[in-house]
Amino acid sequence: MTLQELYQLIDGDYERAIHVLMVEKLIDKHIRKLVKNGVVASLLEAGKTMDPTQLFETAHAAKGVCANLGLVKIADAASEIAEEYRPGNARSMSDEMVREKLAEIEKLYQKAVDGIRQYEGA
Fold first, then answer.
1. How far apart are CA 71 and CA 92, in angstroms?
2. Each residue of 66-91: pLDDT tens digit?
3. In CATH, which of 1.20.120, 1.20.1070, 1.10.760, 1.20.1250 is domain 3-121?
4. Are 112 and 77 in contact (CB under 8 A)?
5. What is the DSSP string of the chain?
6. Rounded to an integer, what distance in angstroms lies between the CA atom of residue 33 and that of residue 4?
7. Domain residue ranges in the chain
């Protein structure tokens, strides 16, 4: 499986990743680290306690990492949570809506993890 095929499999945006990281070797290196770096897992863990500070910090971090890697759907969903809990912003989503957004992120993340593991095994 090629890196571009991986991106098709996980609904990522390879062109965005190459625009940001500029070299396919860097994309390969960092997409493989996604599973180990725990940035998305930390966001999902923060959702268990619904701690506003943790949700903001972990969502903001996940948004950045995923945006740089071209994982746009995860980045966009994490961005919504980051903005929801950004200090000074008024809340617009209910806790249930936030949990639904986190469930969406978890599903997208699991698809990415499964694809990355398949890519690594190829």
1. 25
2. 999 999 999 999 999 999 999 999 99
3. 1.20.120
4. no
5. --HHHHHHHTT--HHHHHHHH-SHHHHHHHHHHHHHH-HHHHHHHHHHHT-HHHHHHHHHHHHHHHHHTT-HHHHHHHHHHHHHHSTTPPP-S-HHHHHHHHHHHHHHHHHHHHHHHHHHH-
6. 17
7. 3-121
pLDDT digits (tens, 9 = 90+) for 97-115: 999 999 999 999 999 999 9
* Two structure tokens written together for 39: 């940035």
Residues in the chain: 122
Residue 48 pLDDT grade (very low, low, confident, very high; cuts 50, 70, 90): very high
